[in-house]
Amino acid sequence: MRLMPNLTFASDNTGPAHTRIMQAVVDANTGPAMPYGADELNARAVTRIREVFEAPDAAVYFVATGTAANALILATLANPWDAIYGHRTSHIEDDECNAPEFYAGGAKLRLVDGPDGKMTPEALRAAIAQSPGGDVHTAQRGPVSITQATEKGTAHTLGEIRALTQVAHDHGLSTHMDGARFTNAMVHLDCTAAEMTWKSGIDTVSFGGTKNGCLGVEAAIFFDPKHAWEFELRRKRGAHLWSKHRFLSAQMDAYMSDGLWIDMAQSANGAAARLAAGITDHPDTSLDYTSGSNLLFARFPRAIHTRLHAAGARYYLFGDADGPDDEQVLCRLVCDWSKTDEDVDAFLALMTAG
């Protein structure tokens, strides 16, 4: 039992793994199990994902990190001479240390603009037009990647996803959803996993678990299993096929059981909504975007940041720590599944203490 409020809002990666996830790993550590994904837990977890996504023929594979899931999927979809289309602030651009380009053997990211962390269909169409197919001198057209939820904390609506995938498919291009915070966006939209993916034109998805209460597991899902064997080869060649695979399988099996994955996302989103309401109500603080997940960008006077950090709060600042007390400084605040009302209220109380 915690005696003090948790004032760390730096990332959902700072949060703990859920006890049911940890117990599942402990329970899997009994007796022998076949390696490399041939364990019974893997088969059960894959079945659960196929049922949730309403995709009985989907190829489903587990890796330990979101970077691996994104990079290996995009490498499977893209040739080394292709362009991969994503938003200028997409996760694959901002947070993957060129892993997609590396694993794809040199495919380049073609960055697309749009407000609130989202590509617009018009901007995507214009970017695709920059690479006329068949011209040996330019990058060829490759897959389109959509970050959901975005790196700005916003969520693409189903209509926005469909509009982007329609542009991609009009040009014969595959589509990928980078879903590190997939469930947070899905809960916000009050839709199903199928509605947010293949029913809206998504061909592949990196289905995140780590940021939503798992110890470390992500699912690479191909709704068309024609890519299955190539992905398996790339996963092995890329050193991301776990030998003791049951410990990935156990996490995903527990995650998908009894709605735990949804419960944790609802908890994280609820905490973020409570935090957002307090920030909006304060006369000196504001939000940059309307959140569609558990991620917020806010502006506080530097004096408030100083007070919060002095009290032990931890979150990211975008700007100099020194300067006038009344100067507005942008910050990022993230709520993980374990954040309580008391944690949020303690943060807000410090924010308004002046």
Q: What radius of gyration results from the CA coordinates?
A: 21 Å
Give the CATH level 1 class of the largest domain.
Answer: Alpha Beta
Task: Give the structural class.
Answer: alpha/beta
With helices defined by DSSP (H or I, 4 residues minimum), what is the helix count? 14
Mean pLDDT over the full residue set: 96
Describe this structure as you would to a colleague:
It is a single chain. This protein folds into 2 domains: 19-255, Aspartate Aminotransferase, domain 2 (3-Layer(aba) Sandwich), CATH 3.40.640; 262-351, Aspartate Aminotransferase, domain 1 (Alpha-Beta Complex). A 7-stranded mixed sheet has the order 1-7-6-5-4-2-3, with helices on both faces. The chain has a 4-stranded antiparallel sheet with strand order 8-9-11-10. 40% of the residues lie in helices and 16% in strands. The chain is of the alpha/beta class. The chain is globular and about 60 Å long.
Task: Provide the fold topology.
Elements: H1 19-28, H2 40-52, E1 59-63, H3 66-77, E2 82-87, H4 91-94, H5 99-103, E3 108-112, H6 121-129, E4 140-147, H7 158-170, E5 175-179, H8 182-189, H9 193-196, E6 204-208, E7 218-222, H10 228-237, H11 246-255, H12 260-281, E8 286-287, E9 295-301, H13 302-310, E10 316-318, E11 328-334, H14 341-351
Parallel strand pairs: 2-3, 2-4, 4-5, 5-6
Antiparallel strand pairs: 1-7, 6-7, 8-9, 9-11, 10-11
Helix pairs in contact: 1-11, 2-11, 3-10, 8-12, 12-14
Sum this structure up briefly.
This protein is of the alpha/beta class. Helices cover 40% and strands 16% of the residues. It has helices at 19-28, 40-52, 66-77, 91-94, 99-103, 121-129, 158-170, 182-189, 193-196, 228-237, 246-255, 260-281, 302-310, 341-351; strands at residues 59-63, 82-87, 108-112, 140-147, 175-179, 204-208, 218-222, 286-287, 295-301, 316-318, 328-334.
